[in-house]
Specification:
- The chain is mainly α.
- The protein contains 20 helices and 2 strands.
- A hairpin with a 5-residue loop joins strand 1 and strand 2.
- Helix 5 packs across helix 8, helix 7 packs parallel to helix 9 and helix 9 packs across helix 19.
Length: 423
């Protein structure tokens, strides 16, 4: 089965290379992630048992639905005679006003600063694991504001600065852009220490990598040698992720084994929920409330806090299951990373395995075509960021979180502000 999945992946890569004109595109990334995860799950690595046939059926079904939907949506847009140039380049013709991007990075810095001393104190005495536990137990509204508002601003600062730097010309103040990027990187490190979380660091890191691939079409070494500061930042990000992971892990796994579990074992955790429907609460459906709960959840939280309404929060209800550690072998346990398929089943039942991949395919078709037909700082930033989000769908349905949605909204608002003249 491993060889079969690899062969299917190779066929997919060549098909979309011919169909879309380049090998690095959203269907190929989706297929690579999922087919490799399925392929490795057959190998019993670390003595992790092979998932059930039902689990494989659900996974393959999602891949098939996503690909068919993507082809249909892309074909429809092309039949409308839209002008699409797969080899187009972002051309900065106007002089941007970057002060709003600078202000947002400075606001983020001073918003994070008050929480840093206590985080450092806890880090010095107890490590990242205790910081993370304190974050989970905290009901501090200030921390919630940082997660909902500052988190997406940091993503915007890093991704948009890198896009501008890679595409900059004589009209762009590169030193000013580097200043913004450095502040944004510092903000990302501060946030990572305060929350002991790896997501922000990883999403920024992966988004930047994908932006480099998009811009240089695989010639990664050129940008690294020409921009040594970026290479150093990426290396430091990897080191920090390793340090946090080693301190937060609760099992006696090496870093590389833990990395394998993190990226290739989510299907095994999903299998636990499938094989134990009562534990997975698969009969407790959200009936469509979860798919856009990134918008629904913050409204519900505010209503509950202000008016004491007591409305249920789908994300919190889902976390009642996913936050529990599950032993997938006598030596390996994990939580949270059960793939977006679990959210699809909890939301619509089996129908969710059709609805969720179709929604994903439509979203990416719109983002991809806008990126090709109207290559701007916003469309390129959103495309790189969205591709990075595909990686995290191996773990959960990320649009259930408001900061994920707000990152895209803030990218658009910041881009529009580039053309505003400040008095």
């Amino acid at each position: 089965m491993f060889i079969l999945n690899v062969l299917i992946l190779i066929v997919s890569l060549f098909f979309y290379k011919i169909y879309l004109g380049n090998i690095f595109n959203f269907p190929n990334l989706f297929n690579t992630l999922w087919l490799l995860m399925i392929a490795f799950s057959y190998q019993n690595i670390l003595n992790i048992p092979t998932p059930s046939n039902t689990t494989y059926l659900y996974a393959y079904l999602s891949v098939v639905v996503f690909n068919i939907s993507s082809i249909i949506f892309l074909m429809k847009r092309r039949n409308n005679n839209d002008k699409i140039d797969e080899n187009s380049r972002l051309n900065i013709k106007s002089k941007y006003n970057l002060w709003t991007l600078f202000f947002s990075s400075v606001v983020s810095f001073f918003s994070l600063l008050p929480s840093l001393p206590s985080a450092f104190q806890l880090l010095r005495t107890s490590g990242f694991h205790e910081i993370r536990k304190e974050v989970f137990l905290s009901e501090d509204s200030g921390k919630m504001l940082l997660q909902w508002g500052i988190n997406p601003l940091i993503i915007c600062g890093i991704v948009m600065s890198v896009v501008l730097l890679l595409n900059s010309n004589e009209k762009i103040n590169k030193k000013f852009l580097v200043t913004i990027l450095v502040i944004s990187i510092i903000n990302c490190l501060m946030y990572t220490i305060i929350f002991a979380g790896r997501f922000l660091l990883m999403i920024c890191f992966i988004s930047v990598i994908f932006e480099i691939v998009i811009h240089y079409k695989g010639r990664l070494f050129k940008i690294f040698f020409n921009n040594i500061w970026l290479a150093i930042s990426l290396v430091l990000s990897i080191i920090l992720v390793i340090v946090i992971s080693n301190q937060r892990v609760l099992s006696n796994l090496s870093f590389w084994n833990m990395t394998y579990v993190y990226f290739f074992a989510p299907l095994n955790l999903f299998n636990v929920y499938i094989e134990n429907p009562d534990f997975g609460k698969l009969d407790d459906l959200f009936n469509g409330k979860f798919i856009f709960s990134g918008v629904y959840t913050p409204i519900t939280v505010l209503l509950n806090r202000i008016f004491k309404t007591g409305f249920s929060i789908p994300l919190a209800t889902l976390n009642e299951v996913t936050s529990n550690f599950v032993w997938i072998t006598p030596f390996v346990h994990m939580n949270n990373n059960s793939t977006y398929l679990y959210a699809a089943l909890r939301d619509f039942g089996i129908l969710g395995l059709f609805i969720y991949p179709m929604v994903l395919a439509k979203y990416f078709q719109v983002v991809y075509n806008n990126f090709l037909m109207n290559r701007t700082v916003f469309t390129e930033s959103l495309y790189a960021y969205s591709l990075a989000m595909l990686v995290f769908l191996l773990f959960e349905w990320m649009p259930a979180r408001i900061n994920i949605i707000l990152a895209g909204v803030f990218m658009y608002l910041l881009y529009k502000s580039f053309f505003i003249k400040l008095k």
